[in-house]
Amino acid sequence: MSDSFRKPSEQQQPDEDVEQLLSVYYGPLLPEQPLAPAAWMNVREQLQRRRRVRLHIPSWPERARRPVRRIPVYVQESYTEIARGAHIRQRWPDPRLRYRLRRRGDLPRVRVALLWPRVIQLNAVRGRERILDQVELDVLLASGLARYLLSLRPLNQLISWLLILLGSAGLLSTIILVWHRQFAWSILPLLITVCAVVLLSSYQHRLTYQADALVARWLGRERTCRGLHGLATRSQHPRRPGWSTPSLTTRARRICMPFVPSNGRAHDRSPLQPLSK
Fold first, then answer.
1. How far apart are the C-alpha atoms of 124 and 103, rounded to whole Å?
2. 47: exposed, middle or buried (C-beta count within 10 Å: 0-12, 13-18, 19+)?
3. Taking every pair of C-alpha atoms in the chain, what is the biggest distance, in angstroms?
4. pTM of the model
5. What phi and psi values does residue 214 have, to the nearest 5 degrees?
6. What is the spatial order of strands in the sheet that 96-102 belongs to?
7. How far apart are CA 261 and CA 267, in angstroms?
8. What residues have CB less than 8 Å from 121, skipping those under 6 apart?
9. Span 145-182, pLDDT tens digits
10. Are 260 and 217 in contact (CB under 8 A)?
11. How many whole angstroms separate alpha carbon 253 and alpha carbon 225?
């Protein structure tokens, strides 16, 4: 028992020796010295200045630094099943699916880069991630995959690059001519820029129709029609077209409506084939 009581005192002795050495080296403890009010005011002004700078930072750098969220299991399973049925791994590299959450919007959207298609980005709305049923989700993911495959074709990439370069050259020429006050000569490159933008938008609409044709061939015409009709019903603006995509109503009409030739008799268009190979 005596040995057990000696051990704590032996352990406390080195600590006391260290404290004595520190007091001898640094001197006795100094009393507390409160800061002057002027010093506190300076600190407060510096903190407020930093807060103002943070408030003026635009939102897009924060959005760019936002980490990519993990793909939900049900989305990954649907995408894997669609990609397996499309048999794309034999011809094209396996595209990666990226999942992000947006604060605004009515429906999830699928986006594929125009010039460098590397990933298929699914932008879901925060708080409304599970708004789509299985058929609508399959059509949405399949349309993104079809747009990815069409964007990888050399002819489509060449046309997109030429239109973008033409529009950029026309815009740059317009700026230079206006800078030199050659307003009459600046009309021609301005018209070229506008025509290039309109042609690029029209070409992107055509690629969307081709992507819908591929989706109808993969999933079937009836299932694709139900998915597009479901997306159009859930959308707040189903008749509003985008810059690079037609409206959901127009897409559903092209897939679901029967083809009526000049003689007036309706024919079924199932199954659909891609418009260009």
1. 9
2. exposed
3. 114
4. 0.65
5. -65, -40
6. 96-102, 119-125, 109-112
7. 8
8. 97, 98, 99, 100, 110, 111, 112
9. 999 989 888 899 899 999 999 999 999 999 998 898 88
10. no
11. 9
pLDDT tens digits, one per residue of 172-220: 999 998 898 888 888 899 999 999 999 999 999 999 999 999 999 988 8
Residue type at 193 in one-letter notation: T
Query: What residue type is 155 in one-letter code?
Result: L
Separation CA 134–CA 75 (nearest Å)? 9
Question: In the numeric block, which tokens belong to residue 167?
Answer: 């529009």
Give the residue extent of every domain in the chain: 65-256
